[in-house]
Design a protein that fits this description.
380 residues
Length: 380
């Protein structure tokens, strides 16, 4: 989401319009994440994806139309061979996608996007709320039936743990609607989800609230700048992790050596965590040049709220470290948090294979903690 928001802000600053496609409801098997987004630019290019194939081509075309018409559309796609044809996606799922224009002249909505990006960069969890009225839609590949009408975006808002942050349209000027949006948004803060909530309609038009949680990408702290770290950084970056590399040697903690890293820090490994902000969205991996450097990192790490702690090494090395840390006051519960030997047991041998096993284990921990990404209607 951070990359899409950055593109939206860049688009607005260039005084250009675009269209944002977001998955808002999904059931069954899909060829994409249920939190996927795609931004269509005025020149026909795109950022992000909602699954590829004919589905993405049609969503792209609908995005161009949304830009031209200045109005959003909700499209429902049934991804079966019968519905989507010989060249379609036959995963068997059903997906609903909101395609909304992004207008560079809508200053209030632009500010909501800006503050959402600032929140993600600061590591703050928020919910973006978009209120839509009217009925709109268009049959997509495999759609059961078309829905025509005039759908309108009435406003956007951003809600955080301290309540309402900023809003546009009716989500800035109508207290009753804003209070309802805050209540609904607050109920999903901290989750990984997107959904539609039906609101009481003031007239004959349908009114719905699209809610999507915005969470900062997890931060991976890599202790040690050797060959394994190089491979882990590359794999973790593609999996959406923010990368921070820490080493006590300048040559091994540099932007030139780690172009995938957001930060490279030269710190003494014996006290490195004193200089870092570690929270439940942090992943700590000790892959230094020797056990004498891994051990102090782990001794510091087990006293943090990190979501994941891992250390490379043989079972003998791990057992010896565990015994020494117990003698120095560590508890069994603290040491049980450490994934050591690190990574999923897939028989990994080379640095690249080891990196895959490590990042796969981090993804497993991440998804188990938050639950699978969910998109769908509110279940009453």
């Amino acid at each position: 989401m951070q990359e899409i928001l950055e593109e939206i802000i860049s688009l607005i600053e260039r005084h250009e319009d675009g269209a944002l496609a977001s998955i808002v409801s999904a059931r069954g098997s899909l060829p994409m994440s249920r939190r996927s987004k795609m931004l269509v630019l005025g020149d026909g290019s795109q950022r992000g994806t909602v699954g590829g194939g004919c589905l993405e081509a049609e969503v792209h075309a609908m995005g161009r139309q949304a830009m031209k018409a200045g109005a959003p559309v909700v499209a429902r796609f049934t991804l079966t061979e019968t519905k989507s044809g010989a060249e379609g996606l036959n995963c068997g799922g059903t997906v609903e996608i909101l395609i909304e224009p992004v207008r560079c002249d809508d200053a209030a909505a632009a500010e909501v996007f800006r503050q959402a990006l600032d929140a993600i960069r600061a590591g703050n969890e928020t919910v973006m709320a978009t209120i839509l009225s009217g009925e709109g839609g268009k049959a997509g590949a495999g759609a059961d039936s078309p829905r025509e009408g005039g759908l309108r975006i009435e406003g956007k808002a951003l809600v955080g743990w301290k309540g309402f942050l900023i809003g546009s349209g009716v989500l800035a000027g109508d207290a009753s609607v804003t209070d309802l949006a805050i209540e609904e948004a607050s109920s999903i803060l901290g989750q990984d989800t997107a959904l539609f909530v039906n609101l009481p309609a003031a007239g004959p038009s349908e009114t719905r609230l699209f809610l999507e949680t915005l969470v900062a990408p997890p931060t991976l702290y890599l202790f040690g700048g050797g060959h394994v770290s190089l491979s882990v950084a590359r794999v973790a970056r593609t999996a959406g992790f923010r990368i921070v590399v820490v080493d006590d040697r300048p040559a091994f903690a540099s932007a030139e050596r780690f172009p995938e890293a957001d930060r490279t820090l030269v710190l003494p490994l014996e006290s490195a965590l004193e200089h870092l902000t570690v929270d439940r969205n942090s992943y700590l991996v000790a892959v230094t040049r020797g056990h004498q450097h891994d051990e102090p990192v782990i001794e510091q790490a087990i006293r943090t709220p990190a979501a994941y702690i891992g250390m490379i090494g043989s079972r003998r090395k791990v057992a010896l470290m565990r015994r020494r840390l117990l003698e120095r006051g560590a508890t069994e519960d603290q040491l049980d948090r450490v994934h050591a030997p690190i990574g999923l047991p897939i028989g990994a041998d080379s640095p690249g294979e080891i990196a895959v096993s490590i990042v796969a284990q981090m993804i497993e921990v991440r998804r188990r903690a938050r639950g699978p990404a969910r998109a769908g209607p509110r279940q009453e």
